[in-house]
Structure formats: C-alpha cells, structure tokens
Request: fold
Amino acid sequence: MRVMIAEDLALLRDGIVRLLADHGFEVAAAVEDGPSLEAAVDAQPPDVCVIDVRLPPGFRDEGLRTALTLRERHPGLPVLILSQYVERTYAAELLSDGRGAVGYLLKDRVSDVRDFVDAVRRVAEGGTAMDPEAVAQLLGGGGGRLDELTPREREVLALMAEGRSNAGIAEALVVSQGAVEKHISNVFFKLGLPPAEHDHRRVLAVLTWLGES
Amino acid sequence: MRTLRRLALDWAYLVLGFPIGVAAFTWVVTGWSVSLSTLIVWIGVPLAAATIGGTRGIAAAARYAAALLDGAPWPSRYRRLTGSAWSRLKALLGDGQTWRDLGWAILGLPIGTVQLVIACLPVWALGGITLPIWWRWTGNDYEYVGFAVNTAGRSWICFAIGIVALPVGLLLVRGVAAGTGAMARWLLAPSREKELEARVETLTETRAGAVSTAAADLERIERDLHDGAQARLVALALDLGIAEEKLAAGDADAARELVARARDEAKRANSELRDLARGIRPPLLADRGLDEAVRALVLRTRIPVAVSVDVPERPDAAIETAAYFVVAEALTNVAKHSDATSASVRVTRLGPRLEVEVRDDGTGGADAEGDGLLGLRRRIEALDGRLDLASPEGGPTVLRAELPCG
Reply:
C-alpha cells in the first residue's frame, strides 16, 4: 500500500514513516509542505495521504486546504488529516464532498500504534476514521432530531461515526451484533436517513448528516 | 448640497445660541447676586452651590448644541464631587471649569444677541428677494429698510438689495457661527491639557488592570504547566527509566507494562497542553478569523442563537481574541445562568470600532463584578475598549463590548 506523508516536524514525520514502514506500507513520499505533496500526488497518486493540518508557511490550515484541493483534482483520493486540535468545521469540510475515504485524527492517536495503522488502512480502503473528539463535537451541537435518540443509540451513533464496523461497535459496547444492528436501524429511522447496507456508505451518511446539521 | 447643510447647521446653532445665552446670563446674574448678598447669613453658601449646579446644567445644553457645529457634543470635565459637603464645595469652587462656565454665561447675553441678529440677516435678505411676489400677490404696500414699497419698480429694487445681501448674510452666518463657536469651545470644552490629563488617568488605571490580569494569567499558566504536563512528563521519564532497568534484567512483561503507562502519561500531557493553548488563542480563530470561530462557538450552545458577523477585514490578533472571548464568556453565562430560550450574537465593524453584542431573553440579574466578566473587562480596557453589561432582574441581558480596531 503506497502512502504519502506531509508533516513539517521532522521528528514526527520520521516517526510516522518508520511506524508505517514497519507495518508494511510503502512510503512513497514524506514532505514538509503542501505544494511538495501536491507535486508528488500529481506525479503518481498514492493509496492514501497522511497530512498535518498546520503546515508552512502560515501554520494555519494549509494542510486541510491542500487535502481539499487534492481531492478536487483526484476525486475520492483517500486523505487522513492529523491535527493537534479537532474542529467541527474542518471535519464538516472534509466530509462535504460525500465521497468518504477521509480521516481526521488528533495527533496523539498516533501513539496507539495499532488503532492508527488500522485507521490509515480503513481510509485507504474508502472508509472513514473520525476522532472521538470530532464526533463528540459533531454530536454535541444537539438540538433537532438528535434529541430523539436514546442514550444507547447516541453511543452507537458516536462509535459508528468514528468509522467502526458493526463488530467493532458490538465489541466496544459488550453487546451482540444483532443488538447493534437494531440500534443502528433505529438511529437511521429517527434521523430520516435512507437505509444503507455497506458499513462505509452508512458511516458516511451519518457523518454527512451531522456535518450539515 | 454640503455647503447648504453646513449653513443650515450653522444657522440653527446661532438661533439656539440666543435662548441658551439669555438663560445662562439671567441665571448667573440672579443666582450670584442673591448668593453673594446672603453670604453673611450663610444661606448664600448653598445658594452659590445651587447656582453653580444650575450653570452646569445650562452649559451642558450649550455643549450639546455644539454638536451642530462639531458633529458631536463637547465633553465636560468637572472635578469629581465626593466626600463631605465641605470637600464637595471645595471641589466646586476650586474647579477652574466653574469659573470658565461663569465667564461663558456672562458673555451669553451679548454673544447670544449678536448670534440672533446675524441669524436674522439671511431671513431678511430672503424677504427682500421675494418682495416683488408679496407686493403683487397681496396688493399691500410694504416698508423695507425704511423704504416705502408702493410700486412694482420699488419692489424690484428691494429684490436687488436682497440678492446682494443674501450671500453677505450667509457668509456672516458661517463666520459668526465659527467665531462664537470657537469662543464657547475655548470656555466650555476641556482644554487639550485637561483632555490629556483625563486620558493619562484612564490609561494608568487600565494599565494597572492589564498588568494584574497578565500576572494572574501567567500565574495560572505556570501552575497548570507545573501541576499538569510537567508533572506527567516527570512520571513518564521515571516509568521509562524503570522500564529500561527491567529490560536490562530481562523482565520484558514488567517493562511493557511500564512503557504502556508512560505512553498514557504522554497522551495526557499532550491533551493538557492542548487545552492550555486553546485557552490562550483558539486554533480555529487563528486559522479562519472571527466569523467561523464565533459560529463554531454558537454550534456548541444548546439554545438557538442568531449570529451576524460583519467584519470585512481581520482586526489585530489581540482585538480579535478579545472579541472572541467576549462571545465565549457571554454564551457560557447564557447557558449556565440565564434560563434563556434564545440568544443573538452580533459582531460589527463600525468605522474605527469593533462592536460585539450578545443578547439573551433569559431572567437577567447577571453580576458584572463576577470573576469571568471582571477579567474580561480588564482585558478589554487594556486594549482601550469598553465592556458594558445591562441585565435587569427579569431580563433581558445584553453584554456589549467596543474595541478599537484599525
């Protein structure tokens, strides 16, 4: 699996390169700013990009803008954004094209090596990986139809929004998969979302709905 | 059009000058003669104080009327009246402005009269210009400046006089308004020196506030770092040190447990540092500016909040951050205390000022001296802005901040 990395802090960049290489990824490029990444991606798009939100020269949201530009040019290009902070606004922008294959994680999640590698894989395969904090913010606005959900349904929704599969949700909540499926169909009904079979499509539907509301 | 407006304002200023001048003159002459003549029986003392008070009232009207000339009323700077009756009296009599007011009031009658006469000039000229119409229309004979108007020709002569007199009259209106205005300004408006004195006083106060806020902030940050991230890093290093020893001794299981714990500590240290940085300058604000940052704040509020942000250019970081924290603090208070069902946030750039207003329909009774608002006020005053809270029992609550910008 080919991966490209844009991170300005050399220490962290080398760490991520080493970590991903150890887990069988082929690191095709590891650069320190947006334009270099764009050049590398345009030359030969990778299976997934890992991008820091803050990049030179302004250290604001250049990484996010680079990701959005790249996805415009290469629709559906999988990108995983790493950030020191989680902002609902940014999560919504990433999700807004409705194509999925996006991730948005706090930088410290990198230290949970297994989860992080899973997240990169999931995004590369077209799934989503949302940081629990981003999900909390998306859900936190509250109001409207979200208030109709039971506490359990909210838990299920939060885990689903992070990008977890039914099995993953069942494991986290210590319930059967059947129970999870029942909760999920309730959530979909209450939010007025059309039923969807595939895990990824379903998560995306929920996230898009949250990002827009 | 502009000249016409200027002339109309000047004319209005002159016309107002007469009643104000006469009132001031009559008041001080009567007031002071009565007070001085009764000074021996001490009744004169309170009477003099009352006379001064009344003069200040009339002077206030004159300062207000000055808005016609200068666009805004003149400020007044009197010494603050506090303490015993005696110290108040001393403040009244020792205040230079009291005597300047008196001088202005005495000049009120002659100057007011001149103003009225000059204001009549253009009216009189207009009368001449329109005389041919009056003469024909009414069929009456008139007298214009001692000149009997009983033929059409004579009425046209008056017309000519009016045509010549009108520009002269208007010029005099402009000149006398400017001249008498300058005179009144010299006597009534605080001198440059006084203005600067007052400014220095405000700055000294707000600077002291800023310094103590900054010191308190630094202390809090230092404490947070010391008790939080720093302590966690120490624990982490310790765990890693022990893990190293365990590894050397060949106890891999114990070492793994310690490394896992160290990783946990590192994560917590990071999250504490993140919260600390967020409290100093929120990242979304730094990245995208007020509009988006305020909208993100509003999204976190559970009641519906109407937002309007109209700030075409990004203000300085300090101003922007202060404005952001006004909204943040206000919305926190709305959520915590007000029982409001809806609120609104408005951020507008008005010329050189940034106005922030947060309004809710809650129960009111907010405390302006509370910790959060007090810190906010100091911060804003240090930036040369102001913070006002209106929160009567029963609501609504309005928090308004004004910040200088650009």
The mean pLDDT of chain B is 87. The radius of gyration of chain B is 34 Å.
